[in-house]
Amino acid sequence: MAKKAKADAAFQRCINPDCCATFEIAQTLTACPKCGNLLDVAYDWDALPIPKKLTEFDKRWTRRPGDINYSGVWRFRDLLPFAPEDRLVTVGEGQTILFHNATLAREVGLTGGQLHLEYEGLNPSGSFKDNGMSAAFTHARMVGARRVACASTGNTSASMALYAAVLGMEAIIFIGSGKIAYGKLAQALDSGGRTLQIRGDFDDAMRLVQEAAKELGLYVVNSVNPFRLEGQKTIMYRVLEALSWEVPDWVIVPGGNLGNSSAFGKAFAELLELGLIKRAPRIAVINSTGARTLTALTNEEKVSWSGGRVDDAKVGKYYGYLDEKGIRAHTLATAIEINRPVNLKKCLRALDVTGGIVREVSDEDIIDAKALVGRSGPGCEPASAASVAGCALLVKEGIIAPSDRVVAILTGNVLKDPEVPVKYNSLQGEALVKALGLFQKRKPKYQNLPVEVDAEIGAIVGALQKPRA
Ligand SMILES: *Cc1c(COP(=O)(O)O)cnc(C)c1O
Ligand SMILES: [Zn+2]
């Protein structure tokens, strides 16, 4: 890793194979100006000092003092080398753990196998978004941005507001009205972010932030920003690191705007290209049934990457159908309540590279899976548990073998959305149905009802001697 990087070894490139236009790192773009497609950060790897083996990264642990080796993102800076070392932005992101829980594994049907949970909720702002934000803010600072903006279902704004507060930048947040979990709104406001509650949904907010950015010169940190995804690649490096650099059979991730799945696919494509791994895990992207665009497009409309020539007409027709029927995304897993995923094409590419697969799970199954996760470790927010519910479904379908080694990404912290677990665990029957809009047809599986007792030792002993409900 001693060789010095050549200037211009990193650049931006359009993902459309019929365009392939390239742009300098110093440019601020969220789409190709020539054809409108998404951009990648690309590298001329031959001109860069790349480690010969992934185990070389282990040495960084012996040099933990110093911010950038401590960062779970910048520890892997050689694999996202677009910025000089002295410009890297960190707030201590990526100090995550990979939990292995045998009981949980058995519960989802992995009898002989292993289920590893990647707890991204342990990030400074409580979600995986910090991985991407450290890279996006590094770029924002390189280009001299003063005002950063995002549309958000909550976690992007919480993360952006945190980084902006640390760096003394102004944070401007677009959220759909009434669609944000309390913990996330609390964070955005607490960090001093300028918050616009748009009378519309996330998809409206996403469109408007891009228009506003053009008009007002704001730096957009949504996952259309290619630098965001560079940071999120490191989630996969840490998973491999925690598995002693062995590649798992599956990586399961909830799908919202599809930034994570896209970043994971890019991470594995590059590691394969660099000869640092021999095979990629299969990626499974899990939608909620209330926000199922990716499921519909891949499994029903048979839209695929097709060498980069994605069938835009089919995608457009599907969006036309959503508009015509007035279908809006609706799920308790608010972080994936998105019907027009901006990274659709990059996700299709990730599915192509990794032999990936897409499934949808119901909100009931998501919330039950969330309760199950809570019993095995630090817990997660609703959207995160889609990965565990998706795992159970894929085992049931026989696609994941009981002996497979599976990694499920838990994208956000349990405290992000305190309302859901309180309602889930304290209400029954009609009251529960009314509060969550779920469980009309079946009962929740893992409820933990609080017990009311008189303030008297006899009553307490009596209550504790009874078997649990
Ligand atoms: C943003 C987010 C998602 C969705 O991730 P994408 O990269 O947009 O698909 C899922 N879970 C949580 C907790 C999130 O914050
Ligand atoms: Zn282009």
Could you explain how this protein is built, in words?
The chain is built from 16 helices and 13 strands. It has 469 residues and is an alpha/beta fold. The protein has a domain of 222 residues: Rossmann fold (3-Layer(aba) Sandwich). It has a six-stranded mixed β-sheet with strand order 4-5-13-10-11-12, with helices on both faces. A four-stranded parallel β-sheet has the order 8-7-6-9, sandwiched between helices. Strands 2-1-3 form a three-stranded antiparallel β-sheet. Helix 8 links the parallel strand 10 and strand 11. The model has no long low-confidence stretch (mean pLDDT 94). Bound molecules: pyridoxal-5'-phosphate (PLP) and zinc ion (ZN).
pLDDT average, as an integer?
94
Oligomer: single chain
Using the alpha-carbon principal axes, give the shape: globular
CATH-scheme architecture of the domain at 97-125 and 228-420: 3-Layer(aba) Sandwich
Q: What is this entry, summarized?
A:
This protein has 469 residues and is α/β, with parallel strands linked by helices.
